[in-house]
Amino acid sequence: MRLWYLLADNLTERCEKQMQIKLSLSSALREHIVSTYSDDKMGARPLKRAIQNVVEDKLAEEILEGRILRGDKVSAGYREGKVTFTTKILCRKTVQFVLYCSYKLSGGNTDGSSSRIAPQ
Q1: Where does residue 98 rank: exposed (0-12), middle (13-18), buried (19+ CB within 10 A)?
Q2: Which of the residues 5, 34, 38, 110 has the least number of beta carbons within 10 Å of its own beta carbon?
Q3: Alpha carbons 111 and 116: distance in angstroms, whole number
Q4: For residue range 58-78, what is the model confidence (pLDDT) as tens digits?
Q5: 45 pairs with which residues across the strands?
């Protein structure tokens, strides 16, 4: 059980440091992973691999799909045979980008009108 806490703490610290995601892992998820994947003969490897495959991969998919964003508070759980994520939005800043372009008339007709407008 102590090994679970070391591996889980490593994951939560990386999420916080790299994505500012506050991740917590439920006791149901812990019980599922420890009971299903722990092997005293193999040591930490099966648990580490299970955390990667069961939690990290699913978390990465959620991030790529845009359901979990930088700065969210996320609780990972285990319900009905599936890993679930519950998200609380802590800090989402809306950034507005404005693009300014200036144009000059190019080409030329003798009357000063132009058939093209080119960005400057």
Answers
A1: exposed
A2: 110
A3: 14
A4: 999 999 999 999 999 999 999
A5: none
